[in-house]
Design a protein that fits this description.
With about 750 residues, the protein is mostly beta strands. Helix content is about 10%, strand content about 30%. It folds into five domains: about 170 residues, no CATH class; about 100 residues, no CATH class; about 100 residues, no CATH class; about 70 residues; about 190 residues, no CATH class. The strands form twelve sheets. The chain has an eight-stranded antiparallel beta sheet, with no helix packed on it. The protein has a six-stranded mixed beta sheet with strand order 17-23-24-25-22-18, with no helix packed on it. A hairpin with a 6-residue loop joins strand 30 and strand 31. The two termini are about 45 Å apart. The N terminus is likely disordered.
Length: about 750
């Protein structure tokens, strides 16, 4: 009875925290900016109402039942809750999709109510101005801030678990300009992103809107604008700006990914795509946020849908000047045009772009483009990987990688020449043609990339070759990471199937009273592959429970697929076959030898009869026909069994519990608290069904038989003495001999 003693002498101690535990704290973390749809980790911007909840034996919070199984007034541990505000990014946002909580995830439909239904969180979209969270205004009026322009998630009763910390959270955020790219239902239009990034009065870089050449940035199908080029080429971005970085660096990265140059000319910032051929792309058709594996099925742009159609980009391919010997300024004896050509063996012929793949839960994924002809001719030359986590669509990434590869591989000639001030209207990205008889150049098109003016007014021009078609990507099929759903480590598994509970005979139990339990997890007659085991609890009153052990593997249990008649012959029974279905546990059975069956190597229990089998023949999914049966083992009766009777294979997966003497004859209430294959997702004990079993102490050894079996002389006293010890050996001739003791020769 020692296990029922008070725990007052226990040396175990449990820390009780008095506040939220934080790893780091900073007052200078920049507020993230999220365009399109991407994954964001929040920051705790406010916390309060920290409460410690004592946990008592049996899993209850706040108090115990007392008595034999209750935890009394001493808690075994603590769980914690707090009110929190988790800052996401600049607003307004359209909603959130998938929420990652550590290694688990939840899909959320964040409709008009903005309720995430996750750990009590509500979503505030970050408008300016926006209302103060009602909980803050009521409970903490002195700290109630509206957090204008900040999108955040908040909970008045956030579960911190036993560690008093906010778990590792990430939110799939439908941010600014979501689904504006019109090439899919999630990403943002790069032209609109750049415009907002440069000019937004709240978080932009303060660039004057009037200093942007809007005709080169924004446009419509049929023109040569940057916006039209991105739509026709299928280019879209979902950047998240979370670290301090120079604005020029951010803009340069976006322009590289979208194959475009920015030019400052005549007091205006112009955007000129490198696209060198007419291009028509198919626009997205359908609702934004259409189902994508790994992304929420919610709608990032409520009330918006796309009708598809096409968008055509027509680049300006007309040279500004046709330059010849009469136009160059050069010294006698020197070539008017100087050519610099890079080594073809130094040109990279494989380019990788690392993206944050939306369809693979925003995992970092490499997308590679290569030129097989260049590889075979010059050998493999791998360029440095371009990190582009603002790209979440593999199809966009393939186009980007191909364009970067082709620009570095096929544009290797640089042309340097000088012109007089008469050509001062030229600007970078302009096309001109060059003619130089000495170099064999005749109306060769080049693109100007740099112009410098010296003190004398002469213009030193650097241009790159302009091979047609190299700035247009061919659509190749994309091979990405397989979208394998990561298992939700906190998902609650199925409850247990109806367990097989019985008392083994003394010869199986080692002369110790025990109960054996075959248990597995499943529902609807099918096994749950995520079921990892169960904690076993017992109660004498059906109210207060104590843990007595743990099941860590499913037992091979099931039901009979057909009836089995009674048997009165000599083992083995070769006339009958036992049909079993193990679908509820997903179990499998294997055959053994005739000698193994005779030794009960394949011991099973059917109803209350112990038997063994020799051959297991698979007849269907988890269905078997067992033959070569050894019936009525260990003193059980070889009775008839109806279809649907319980079946269990008795092996190491069977839970075995040694009964205290006080439990014999008492109704025991047993609960099996399931957990998943990672040990998480523990069921609430109150949700577990209770199974009642009254043990009779069958596994106890008969005292006289035990003394006789010891082989030692046994004095049972005189026949005239009062009976001090007795055994019931049954009725003579009532049945087969259950056990025998050889007392030796007379």
């Amino acid at each position: 009875m020692g296990f029922l003693q008070s725990s007052a002498n226990s040396t175990a101690s449990y820390p009780q925290y008095t506040g939220l535990q934080l790893q780091t704290s900073s007052g200078a973390v920049p507020i993230s900016i999220c365009y399109g749809t991407n994954k964001i980790a929040p920051n705790v911007v406010w916390t309060g109402n920290f409460v410690a909840h004592p946990v008592f034996a049996g899993g209850g919070k706040g108090g115990g039942k007392g008595g034999v199984f209750g935890g009394g007034s001493t808690p075994t541990s603590y769980d914690y809750t707090a009110a929190v505000v988790l800052g996401l990014c600049e607003g307004p946002i359209k909603g959130v999709g998938t929420v990652w909580n550590g290694q688990s995830l939840t899909n959320i439909a964040s409709g008009a109510s903005k309720s995430t239904s996750f750990n009590g969180l509500i979503l505030v979209d970050g408008t300016t101005p926006q209302a103060t969270w009602s909980y803050l205004a009521t409970k903490f009026p002195a700290q109630a801030l509206a957090y204008n322009g900040l999108a955040y998630a908040a909970s008045a009763d956030y579960d911190l678990g036993s560690s008093a910390t906010v778990s590792a959270l990430s939110f799939e955020t439908y941010g600014i300009l979501v689904s504006s790219a019109v090439v899919n239902g999630y990403d943002a239009d790069p032209a609109l992103v750049i415009q907002d990034f440069l000019t937004n009065a709240q978080y932009g870089v303060g660039f004057p809107p009037v200093s942007i050449d809007a005709t080169t940035l924004l446009g419509a199908s049929g023109d040569s604008s940057y916006q039209t080029y991105c739509r026709a080429a299928g280019l879209a971005l979902s950047p998240v700006l979370m670290d301090q970085e120079a604005a020029s660096s951010i803009l340069a990265r976006w322009l590289q990914l979208t194959n475009t140059a920015a030019v400052w000319s005549s007091g205006l910032l112009k955007f000129i795509p490198y696209g060198d051929a007419p291009l028509t792309g198919t626009l997205y058709s359908g609702s934004p946020g259409a189902a994508v594996p790994g992304a929420s099925s919610g709608t990032p742009g409520p009330g918006t849908s796309f009708s598809g159609g096409a968008c055509t980009f027509n680049p300006n391919l007309t040279p500004v000047y046709n330059l010849g010997d009469d136009d160059y300024v050069y010294d006698d004896g020197k070539d008017p045009v100087n050519i610099v050509r890079s080594d073809p063996y130094a040109a990279y012929n494989m380019q990788t772009v690392e993206i944050s793949q939306r369809s693979n839960y925003y995992d970092a994924t490499p997308i590679t483009a290569f030129d097989q002809n260049a590889i075979e001719r010059y050998g493999l030359r791998i360029a440095s990987t371009v990190t582009a986590h603002e790209i979440c669509d593999p199809n966009v990434a393939q186009t980007v990688a191909q364009l970067i590869l082709q620009r570095g591989l096929y544009i290797r000639n640089l042309y340097e020449f000088k012109l007089s001030w008469e050509y001062c209207l030229l600007e970078p990205t302009d096309l001109v043609t060059l003619t130089d008889a000495n170099l064999g150049l005749e109306n060769v098109a080049v693109r100007i990339i740099e112009i410098q003016e010296d003190e004398a007014g002469l213009l030193s021009v650097t241009a790159e070759e302009y091979p047609g078609g190299t700035a247009t990507a061919v659509a190749y099929p994309v091979q990405t990471n397989a979208n394998v759903l990561p298992f939700n480590r906190t998902a609650v598994p199925a409850s247990v199937n109806a367990p097989v509970i019985f008392e083994p005979p003394a010869s199986l139990a080692g002369a110790t009273p025990q109960i054996w339990i075959a248990v597995s997890g499943g529902s609807g007659g099918l096994a749950d592959p995520n079921w990892g085991g169960a904690n076993v609890w017992v109660s004498l009153d059906g109210t207060s429970y104590v843990a007595i052990g743990q099941v860590t593997a499913p037992a091979r249990q099931g039901v009979l697929g057909g009836g089995l008649p009674a048997y009165a012959g000599v083992n083995p029974d070769v006339s009958d076959a036992l049909s079993v279905n193990l679908a509820e546990s997903g179990g499998a059975l294997a055959s053994t030898t005739a000698a193994g069956a005779a030794q009960a190597v394949t011991l099973v229990i059917v109803g209350s009869e112990f038997m063994a089998y020799e051959t297991a023949t698979l007849t269907g999914a988890n269905a078997y026909q067992l033959t070569g049966l050894y019936r009525g083992l260990y003193g059980s009766n070889a009775v008839a069994h109806a279809a649907g009777a319980s079946f269990a294979r008795l092996d190491g997966a069977v839970f075995k519990y040694v009964l205290p003497n006080s439990y014999i004859g008492q109704p025991l209430y047993l609960k099996f608290q399931s957990f998943n294959i990672f040990g998480g997702g523990l069921q609430d004990l109150s949700d577990c069904a209770a199974y009642v079993f009254s043990p009779a102490g069958r596994g106890s050894a008969d005292p006289i038989a035990a003394q006789l079996a010891s082989g030692l002389p046994t004095d049972l006293g005189r026949a005239s003495d009062a009976v001090a010890i007795a055994d019931d050996f049954g009725t003579v001739g009532a049945g087969a001999i259950v056990d025998a003791i050889d007392l030796g020769a007379v």
